[in-house]
Amino acid sequence: MDKMEVSECQEQEHAQQLTSSQSRGVVTIAHTTGGPIYKLGEKSSGIRTRVNVQDFYQLRDQSYNSGRLFEDPEFPATDESIYFSKKPNFKCEWKRPREISKNAQFFVEGPSRFDIEQGSIGNCWFLAAAANLTLIKNFFYNVIPNDQGFDEKYAGIFHFRFWQYGRWVEVVVDDRLPTKNGKLVYTRSSETNEFWSAIFEKAYAKLYGSYEALDGGTICEAMVDFTGGVSERIDLSRITQDSLLSIMLKAYDRGSLMGCAINLANALVVLSSTAEDGEIKVRNSLANALVVLSSTAEDGEIKVRNSASANELEAETKDGLVKGHAYSVTKVKLFDFKTRRAEGQIPLIRLRNPWGQIEWKGPWSDNQVRFEPRPTHPSPAIQSIASLPDTLARSPEWRYVPEDEKKESGLTFDNDGEFFMSLKYFHSSFSELEICNLSADSLTTKTLHEEGNKRWEMSIFEGSWVRDLTAGGCGRFTVELVATWLALFENFCLGDPIRLQDQSTRISAALEFIDCCEKTLNGEQSFWRNPQYLITLTDADKDDGDGKCTILVALMQKNRRAQRKMGLEVLSIGFEIFHLADPSRTPKPLTAKFLAQSRAVASSLPFINLREVTCRVRLQPGVYCIVPSTYNPNEEGEFIIRVFSETKNYMEEHDENVGLSAVDERNAPNEQMTVFKVDDTQMTDAQKEYFKQIAGDDMEISWEELKDVLDMVIKPEGNNQGYSREVCRSLLALMDVDHSGKLSYQEFNVLWTDVGRWNGVFKLYDKDKSGCMSMLELRQALNSAGYRVNYGILSLLARRYGNKKNKISYKDFLLCAIRLKVMIEVKEGFINQINLCRDQGLNPGPPAQKSVTLPLDHQVTLKLHMFQKNVSGDSDTLTFTMNQWLEKTLYI
């Protein structure tokens, strides 16, 4: 079958899938159409990168008009774009497609899954996902726009779009590609003059910093980047063939992307000397993301890395499959068959090896090699064809399938990396199935015709884990896990007679176990510090009959792959869900005491070092709190959390509302501070004279005069040199309402009272009199000073005013407090213009905070340009909540 015929078959398959999906009312979760597309490097793109913003169309026109092919300065044709740690063992020469092939084309007869063949880097996960992307043309051309090529307006520049943490981001690259001896080093097409897949790979490498950054990953990671969908992973050892068939048919019918892999047989489950906190680590597979679930790790941490020998990594098995390697699932179908003894339908799976060669040699393959399959337990679904021959000669099973079905499925007997296999052998040969749902329809065991039309509701929040503030670690270890650790300890000592005789080994193991338990108890005390999200489920799923709600929670950590060159690896992450029986009496946020007395109703356990973890659960309507965390406390990172439900859900941060509160009664005012604490209209002659001595005849205080009086009355903690010039100028600037450059008596009076209060608060929490306070105490200190802040604002303050030791000095505490006070009061000052509209953006929910709407004039435009501009009637307005206001102003 030539490429044109393959493309026609793909179009027919896609049309059938699309028609089937539309007939059931499928609604895609994420799609570029209708949403903003950000440019890589834009601050609002949500990606941490230092590249300059590039506009594809502007750069293309400039290069084309100048007659010079575009050269990307942000991803140069140098070694630093190829690697950050492993230098290639060859000399790389960068060539443009027309230097490789005189008839270079972007597409040859359109995109096809056969256009992708793996090169000399371990990114089979990316290529398997890219092959799947070619099967769904509307998504394909959103990611790889069809307005570029080597013909009209060719200027050596191309652009691609990737979904990144809730936003679509455009990446621009030139077409200089790494070659060796005139041939492409990395991804290539089966057509030697076709280059879309190679340039696409380069754009993905630029997104994450280098080609080496693409070494190792999961199929789902790339599929989510291509679609914005939500991923799920299925351990094939824990599911029956019948359930697997139901899930795969529904996923394929809805256009979901699928991939699979084989875990290595010798994966290690150890309690190693490097796991001092008792975490259970599982290391496995070249793909750096294949999950091996252990019965001893039900509530621990699972980590994934390469641990097999070089001979086992991506080694071919006797039946033609490759261990530790990612495959695309390109078709799932019930084929009609008829033999002399039986007739009916048989489920077959079509897969593709990104290498473009090495195929399955067993039943239903297109290979001529003879193979004796290992015995397995047959599924009831295919009992009727158990008599089909096992010894093959070009898969005689296909003789029993009608010719029109074989043609429609694109069956060929070529060594092109694509093959069919029966569900029975797929289930027994592969370890894990990965599904990226492009639509939000359920993949439960209900039949297709019972599902009806369903729309899933999505809420999405961004958050972060900050050391000593919001990085509390999981800390949710059960008695069962402690028992598991004890069993591991006993096995460690008793399982080996030599270890039993070695007293030092036994003592070392015992100390390690005790340390594990101690750190567990410490983690329990910090778990409550993690970000918390309240979700309200109001209605049960329709037509289910059990009165429950289905939700899918997806937690994704941000920017870790791009930061690998800085030594950062993917964290072990997870989340737990708690039911709140009486939300009105529940503390905000949930306290350590509350969590210690509560039991999670669902979780993503075990914790695992993957970019995204998901959990599908069914819950009674009610109010729940989701607590995402890393495995260990004080591991820093950013994340997004998405919640999908079949009925309406309301999601919000479960934290204090930002604003003013009562001052801590323990904060007694300094007696010397009361000298000015009167209204200026009630000043006595003595007080006026005293103020004049400080301020001078103009009765206004400059920053120098402010420093003198502060140094005289209020001694700064831990500093004998008095208040710094920077502090005094900042205090004056923030309190100088009329912008005179000086403080009037009224302005000074307010500042004087506040500084006295903040000085007293700092003394309460600077218990060692060092002049610094731990960030762990910043929230309590601000509460004592009369300010309520949530963890989002607290994180901003920590980054703005904290030092490298995660402490805050007296000077910075003053600056932090004064800025927080002023910004809250400025926002509260617009209370008469309150617009009680709730956020219409990413976080729909009941009104939780007041939103202020301000008229847009020249002055506020200069100050508030960072806010979203909403057009309302004939006048422009800015709408933002207190939280948004502080997020934008506190970090300036």
TrEMBL record:
Boundaries of every Calpain catalytic domain copy: 69-439
GO cellular component, one term: cytoplasm
GO molecular function per UniProt: calcium ion binding; calcium-dependent cysteine-type endopeptidase activity
GO biological process: proteolysis
Residue span, EF-hand domain: 753-788
Keywords associated with the record: Calcium, Hydrolase, Metal-binding, Protease, Repeat, Thiol protease
Superkingdom as given in the UniProt entry: Eukaryota
Active site: 124, 325, 353
The keyword Hydrolase belongs to this UniProt entry's keyword annotation: yes
PANTHER family, sorted: CALPAIN, CALPAIN-A-RELATED
Family per similarity comment: Belongs to the peptidase C2 family.
Protein's recorded name: Calpain-B
